Amino acid sequence: MKAIAVSEFKGTPTLMDLPKPAIRPGTVLIKVQAAGMNPFDWKMTDGIMNNGKTPHQFPLIMGVDGAGVIEEVGEGVTRFKKGDLVYGQFIHMPIGEGSYAEYAIVPEKSGLTIAPMRIQPEEAAAVPTSGMTALQMVEKLKLQKGDAVLINGATGGVGSFATQIAAAKGLKVIATVGDEDDAKRMHRLGAAVTINYKKAPLADQVKAKFPHGVDGLLDLIGNKEKFEQNLDLVKEGGGALTTQFVADDEVLKAKKLHGGNFETEGSPAALDQLSRLIDQGQIKVPVENKIRLEDAPAAIAASREGKATGKTVIVM
């Protein structure tokens, strides 16, 4: 089968011919239809999970998010059957049996579930990591209907989902954008207010529009300095979360805010919740770029250099 893999940590992602995975007890073999790309995928090949305890195998096939059809079920599998359309996070031990391949083997008990009915596999593959991160972040803020939430980095994968989920919950979303096209897209996704951070400092613009502050902050791109500056925009008792692991608990405590560094907890239950929102039409899946497997190395390089725009999906 064709797959994108590396031969060693920090190796160059390459299109390889590798053996089709053999079914094992407790696993399913998926004929992959699409794989969603995330920066975490190349961070894994750089060894972000190489802590001496997590097993890896080489060639290491990249990819966490995927969607496809179950071709075979292993002994003891009860949740799925041959022919089921599934999506989710394919990541499991050993690291290296990922979704950037024509076939993938995934344990039944991993973050896998039946795919939403009203979208195509290439859209479903874009959902798992970004969608679950957005869903859990919005829920963790514990805001009430009518509250205002500032999403810094709203135009990315997580931000696009978070904007829609927050709007569906009745929150007033303030989305950061870089141009007029982004502003139009974010308004279509449910943002009540857009702020072009290129026109003037973000904090100054938010204070002008919300002099009494906002109720919550989701910061998806800010460094430590910017995150702490943005905390000044949040009302006392409000919440602030960052995916960049730059939060200082003592700083939050001093400002009487809850939240901090956020890490996604993938689960079939969270995916099922996203599926319901998608099938109810409350979430549109933003896929900006669809590429072939052989195009993935160039797309990975662009992501590393910070030149990737929008959500990219590999279509098999």
Automatic annotation (TrEMBL):
Domain named Enoyl reductase (ER): residues: 11-314
SUPFAM superfamilies: GroES-like, NAD(P)-binding Rossmann-fold domains
Record InterPro entries: ADH-like_C, ADH-like_N, ER, GroES-like_sf, NAD(P)-bd_dom_sf
Classification via Gene3D superfamilies: Medium-chain alcohol dehydrogenases, catalytic domain (3.90.180.10), NAD(P)-binding Rossmann-like Domain (3.40.50.720)
Keyword line: NADP, Oxidoreductase
Gene Ontology molecular-function annotations: NADPH binding; oxidoreductase activity, acting on NAD(P)H
Pfam families: ADH_N, ADH_zinc_N
Protein name in UniProt: NADP-dependent oxidoreductase
Taxonomic placement: Bacteria, Pseudomonadati, Bacteroidota, Chitinophagia, Chitinophagales
